[in-house]
From TrEMBL:
Protein name: tRNA (Cmo5U34)-methyltransferase
Superkingdom as given in the UniProt entry: Bacteria
Domain Methyltransferase positions: 46-138
Organism listed in the record: Faecalicatena orotica
InterPro entries for the chain: Methyltransf_25, SAM-dependent_MTases_sf
Gene Ontology molecular function, alphabetical: methyltransferase activity
GO biological process, one term: methylation
Keywords for this protein: Methyltransferase, Transferase
Length: 222
């Protein structure tokens, strides 16, 4: 587990992701606003697919976190996070989301642009693991790419996404390369399937938090 499975290496990730995903910073603000609204205290927070620690940075700035656990399958990403957050209330776990074995431990679990790399049964296992890892009334918050309902809709949204990337400084070739990853390197599911998956994994509350372009934020409460 020496490298991540995203489109970018650990060293370039933070710069490239903003060139690629519209409203990327908004994902994290939406998470913070939701957690604050749930009135959870003395938080134990797990961020799966933590990357370089963007979620932790925003959480520590805005919310009282008693313990923050970083989890990633990339040792390079985890090392960057360790260097950024050498705090006594942090923990670092090198593992895939499908390998989580925690039980009733966390108040908040976040997964930002993580599960769309998984096939459907793998995704189900990952979400079920997150459910098991939450305490009662804990919340799971996920931001993912999603699949439009029609082929025409997909083609239009992908072209829109390509134009956004070019406006952010990517070349046409770079943008085309990223767009070509759809259903090849990552495997989006529809909004209906996203919601059904959380319900099937026994979350008692399932809601859409935010949506734009081909990205959606969803959450479930145990």
């Amino acid at each position: 587990m020496s490298e991540n499975i995203s489109a970018f290496t650990s060293k370039e990730y933070d710069m490239k992701i903003k060139q690629t995903l519209p409203y990327y910073d908004e994902f994290y603000q939406q998470v913070i606003d939701l957690v604050k609204s749930c009135n959870l205290n003395a938080l134990h927070w797990l961020d799966v697919g933590c990357g370089t620690g963007k979620m932790a940075e925003i959480a520590f700035e805005n919310i009282g976190v008693e313990k923050f656990t970083f989890c990633d399958c990339s040792s390079e990403m985890l090392e960057i996070a360790k260097e950024r957050f050498p705090y006594p209330n942090t923990e670092f776990i090198l593992c895939d989301i499908q390998e989580l074995t925690n039980s009733n431990e966390y108040d908040v679990i976040t997964a930002i642009q993580v599960n769309h790399y998984l096939q459907k049964e793998e995704r189900r296992k990952a979400v079920q693991n997150c459910y098991q890892s939450l305490r009662e009334n804990g919340i799971f918050i996920s931001f993912e790419n999603f699949a439009p309902f029609s082929e025409l809709g997909k083609n239009i949204y992908l072209e829109k996404w390509k134009l956004y990337q070019m406006e952010q400084g990517k070349t046409a070739a770079e943008s085309d390369e990223h767009i070509s990853r759809y259903n090849q390197n990552y495997f989006p599911i529809t909004l209906t399937e996203h919601l059904k998956l959380l319900r099937d994994c026994k979350f008692r509350v399932v809601e859409i938090l935010w949506i734009s372009n081909m990205q959606v934020g969803i959450w479930g409460m145990k």
